[in-house]
Design goal:
The longest helix has 25 residues. This protein has one domain. The chain is mostly helical. It has six helices and no strands. Helices cover about 75% and strands about 0% of the residues.
Length: about 120
C-alpha cells in the first residue's frame, strides 16, 4: 500500500470515529451540564476513547501529508490525545466538551474534503 493510500485509509477511520463520537454524544443533548454529570461517565469515556483513537491515527499520517494540509491543526489533535491518555483522571471537562461540540464536526468535514480532493 502506498503512503498516499495509507493516509487516505487513516482519514476514513478518523471520519468513522468522528461519526461515532456524534452518536455517543447524543446522550448529552448539546448540554454541558448533562455532559459533566457524573452519571454520564460512560458516554464521556467513550468519547474520550474515540478522541484518543483519532490522535493515534493522526500520528500515523505521513509528515508530507500533514505539511501539505497544514490548515488542519494536526499537532493540536495529537495534543488532545496526549491529554486524554496521560491525564485521564484530570482531563478538563470544558476542554473536552469544547472539542466535542466544536472541533469534531469540523475535523470530519476537513477529512472528507481531503478525501474528495484526492479521490480517496
Amino acid at each position: 500500500m502506498t503512503k498516499q493510500a495509507k493516509d487516505c485509509q487513516r482519514l476514513r477511520r478518523i471520519i468513522d470515529y468522528c461519526e461515532k463520537i456524534k452518536i455517543a454524544a447524543k446522550v448529552f443533548n448539546d448540554d454541558y451540564e448533562t455532559f459533566a454529570d457524573d452519571r454520564n461517565y460512560q458516554a464521556r469515556d467513550v468519547c474520550s476513547f474515540y478522541i484518543l483513537q483519532i490522535g493515534e491515527l493522526v500520528s500515523g499520517l505521513t509528515d508530507d501529508f500533514k505539511a501539505e494540509n497544514s490548515h488542519i491543526p494536526w499537532r493540536a489533535i495529537k495534543g488532545m490525545r496526549n491529554v486524554v491518555v496521560h491525564k485521564y483522571g484530570e482531563v478538563d471537562m470544558e476542554t473536552l466538551w469544547d472539542a466535542l461540540e466544536n472541533d469534531i464536526q469540523k475535523l470530519k468535514e476537513d477529512c472528507r474534503a481531503l478525501l474528495e480532493q484526492g479521490d480517496g
